[in-house]
Amino acid sequence: xxxxxxASLVFAVMVVVASSPQVIVAQGQNAQRPAAPAGAYAPxxxxxxxxxxxxxxxxxxxxxxxxxxxxxxxxxxxxxDPSRRGKSLIIDPPDGKIPYQPWALAKSNEVLQHHENPTxxxxxxxxxxxxxxVPRHLNNREFEIFQPPGYVVVFNMAHHxxxxxxxxxxxxxxxxIKLWMGDSRGRWDGNALVVDVTNNNDQPWFDVVGSFHxxxxxxxxxxxxxxxxxxxxxxxxxxxxxxxxxxxxxxTFNRNKDYGSExxxxxxxxxxxxxxxxxxxxxxx
Length: 285
Hints:
This protein is an alpha+beta fold. It has helices at about 5-20, 20-30, 100-115, 275-280; strands spanning about 55-60, 90, 145, 150-155, 160-165, 185-190, 190-200, 220-225, 230-240, 245-255. About 15% of the residues lie in helices and about 25% in strands.
């Protein structure tokens, strides 16, 4: 059954934004975007002039530990592929490690040591069906991009998560408000979608093993279509409470071209009895 929640949300977003005067401004601005440089991929355009990146996208791999893909070999079939073994998703710093402050590195290592048999304080919030945050919601399962006028909307298969990203240049919400998925504001830089994400809470991790951030985290994302079926994605993570410097993660998204492909509802809560039992029987501290 197709995800009815997603369909209804798309309809609601399209109805609301179509009646907004900000959309008219956005349409005019996007329609006047310059063409791509000679030799670069030039994506088709939506009716309001946005580079068209609509479709269902699959991240290349789902990541157990973003700093060490050797962990992933336990769960996916590239155990014997030397090109994938031991590499990090982090492209800056060059060593592929999150530049934690000393206290934060100690906290991350503590979670890593306990995550395989955790008490609740070492349990990934994703295992409890909470939203995965940015950027993790893009590297866990399939997601779908819609582009109603003036917006880019991302729907996830996992946890009923979605983001409606306005392109009107408006301000972020007040700083005191903290959200699981943060507050996103987007713009087009040529054919690249650039999204600034603020107002994050400190609950989601980047992966299963406790790579974490604080509520001061800010994320700058770039979605760059390099051909009709591939998007290169980078996110620059800044958090002065936890890291010594900003760092950058890179992912690749491939278009799902299977005939009739669609997102299906993930029944996380309904099938989450083992996690509930763990929390009741191993309360931890």
